């Protein structure tokens, strides 16, 4: 009997900007992350447990100048019953108490001019970008990596910190400029982000003096009026986008007489790819690597 070829899985690949502050300008992120990860030599030592779900960076390697990440996540005690889709019978899960289902998530990092970008696979049951950010911060703060982190730290009053932000797509500003009236606009800036200083005029001296991790600027138009498109916060967003420094931004306004809310999260740089799967239904690591190279090339050619 012929084996049925598993169907490819459609995955969304999103482009993020990785910023690691607190190190020397021009620091090699890939070498730094490889040192941290390699120093935790065993799989059990690489498991990050922020809550009910656990995450681990199981493989980290350089390939063709890029950094390849293979994360897995699991939840202990997750043993749902099994449904046979042919006869619709339900049976007990065969996993033992010490076994758990693994969910893989892939990512690829690359130095792109003056910034570092990461292409991340969106997996509903896997390791989300926010958890990747927390995981990399956990690597930096891991007690076994203290010596590595201390050597890389420029100022002891400014600890090394990680920021992973979705790169805004050009369509975000296209929607904003098409608005007849802009009712409100907000932008969030994380401290590690090099764009922090670009909003200094809008943030005021409090940005420098508060020692905050992040700041959010929000402007509301006067009743019946519109925020200016060529000045103020909208102009600052445009400038930050052109410098590849735009953080999370939200704009509300009217398009063709209807109220519309647009954000960088809904208009981030992304691409869908079909990834080959193995007989057990998981995405093939080899197929993912090939597709990531393809997508990374296309998505970074114009940025």
Number of domains: 2
Number of helices: 8
Instruction: Tell me the span between the first and last alpha carbons.
Output: 50 Å
Task: Give the low-pLDDT segments.
Answer: none
Q: What's the quaternary structure here?
A: single chain
The major sheet is characterized as: 8 strands, antiparallel
Q: What general form does the structure show?
A: globular
What structural class do you assign from the helix and strand content? alpha+beta
Helix content percent band? 10-25%
The SSE string, one letter per element, is EHEEEEEEEHHEHEHHEHEEEH
Secondary structure tally: strands: 14
Radius of gyration: 22 Å
Percentage of residues in DSSP E strands:
25-35%
Report the average pLDDT across residues.
Answer: 88
Describe this structure in words.
- Pfam families: DUF4747.
- This is DUF4747 family protein.
- InterPro entries: DUF4747.
- With 303 residues, the protein is of the alpha+beta class.
- It has two domains: 9-78 and 98-166 and 269-300, no CATH class; 170-263, no CATH class.
- Helices cover 25% and strands 32% of the residues.
- Strands 1, 2, 3, 4, 7, 8, 9 and 14 form an eight-stranded antiparallel sheet that branches. A four-stranded antiparallel sheet has the order 11-10-12-13, with helices on one face.
- The radius of gyration is 22 Å and the shape is globular.
- 28% of the residues are buried.
- The model has no long low-confidence stretch (mean pLDDT 88).
